Amino acid sequence: MGTGVRARVFISCGQQKETDEVKIAHDIAAKLDQVGFDPYIAVAEQTLRGVKENIFQRLSESEYIVFVDFKRERLFTDVIL
Questions:
Q1: Cβ burial 2-26 (10 Å sphere, 16+ → b, else e)
Q2: What pLDDT, on a 0 to 100 scale, did the predictor assign at position 22?
């Protein structure tokens, strides 16, 4: 792509340890970068201030959002009433 301004993409996905989730997020970011976007991976923040100052700021500056929803365990089981 040209040397103009690149659209920013906010990538939100799981970052569970002992999984490939972080690697997958970086793979997605690398592909988006290759095709001319400016990706940002939302990292796990430990404080409300970090969320406000980093995550929300980046989110508000982004033109696009990619949300990756990894499969997790069931939250409930079938209940017979």
A1: eeeebebbbbbbeeeeeeeebebbe
A2: 83
Residue 72 in domain: no
Question: How high is the pLDDT of residue 80?
Answer: 66
Mean pLDDT estimate for the chain: 84
Per the structure, the complete domain to which residue 40 belongs is given by: 14-67
Q: Is the dihedral of CA 29, 65, 59, 72 positive or negative?
A: negative
The whole-model pTM stands at: 0.74
Domain count of the fold of the chain: 1
| SS3 of residue 76 by DSSP | coil
Tokens (6 digits) for 6: 């690149």
With tokens 């997958």, the residue in question is 24
Burial (0-12, 13-18, 19+ Cβ within 10 Å), 32: buried
